[in-house]
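Hello Y.,

Per our agreement to keep a running log of every chain we model this quarter, I'm adding this entry. I've kept the format consistent with earlier entries: sequence first, then predicted structure.
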Amino acid sequence: MSVICGSYRLMPALLGCGQWKRQVNLACMTVSYHYMPRSPWWCKAALVDIAVESEYFTASYGIFLPGLGGWGGERGGTSVPADEETGESWSGRYATAPNQAALYRLTGDLHPIHIDPEVAQANSFERPILHGLCTLGIAARMIAEAAGAHPADLKELEARLSSPVLPGDIIEVTANTISSGLNFEARVGSTLVLKGGRATFC
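Predicted structure for the entry above:
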């Protein structure tokens, strides 16, 4: 089973006392004919939506499973809510380290596709890929600078991982100020790796 790309949404809540409460909800729908850059598939795929909630944050993410599907449910939508841009824009670049995926494994994500060349090649990647949340974290820190905010002031973040990043790649992030925060996207060269990004800060 190969996971090609996904989307993430994070909404931190105010920290407080008490015990963590976690609730996980799963929803599955069939999505047909999605093309993923840097991969050979043009086929139907299932989209699994997962939500994790606690008193501290709400996080949700969707995972594409190429070649699977037919389980019923509604077709996935692709629309993104529109918001007015103020005209202010920002861009920045970040050079990932060749060992960045190996270091990110310290977070506990030990999937071999991020460290084992044979596993990466078996999934049609030339070499191990960077963790999607690492790419998103890099972008989040960069757009905090664009907003003139501290990264810890993040209130809401969402984006879609549209193509993998390879350790050593240079990520270019562009952002536009909107009435509710920022819209952003990220590229490696001409390849869009994050799209539909939106962030708000306290």
